Fold this sequence. Notes:
Elements: E1 7-11, H1 15-39, H2 45-66, E2 71-75, E3 80-84, E4 93-102, E5 106-113, E6 120-125, H3 130-142
Amino acid sequence: xxxxxxxxxxxxxxxxxxxxxxxxxxxxxxxxxxxxxxxxxxxxxxxxxxxxxxxxxxxxxxxxxxxxxxxxxxxxxxxxxxxxxxxxxxxxxxxxxxxxxxxxxxxxxxxxxxxxxxxxxxxxxxxxxxxxxxxxxxxxxxxxxxxxxxxxxx
Length: 154
């Protein structure tokens, strides 16, 4: 089995990711608020503490969503490379990509640089990348290092 040919895409659209994070923050706020209202009878401070924690978390998520920048993702036939859009073709980080969530029209990819334990989450959606979407999906699923046997066992 051969590796897929080189492939490059610039991930620019993050609408589904932003909406998903906003829904998650809203749901957690509702759950925290419901809990705080029932706990307020026993611990009156619980309502204000939980609202403060939720406010800080929602601000942190909002700041993170506003800082999402386009990312260049490239497969060179042997490894994945990730970097800012200004480095297309010469992305500085090499590593592996795995699919964490695949919903057909949206995927959450995890890029782990070579020699590192921590990775980077890369949300990818079909909308805005229609022409390149099939190529991305095919390459992500087929571009896995495979140890080939040196000789057949007889």
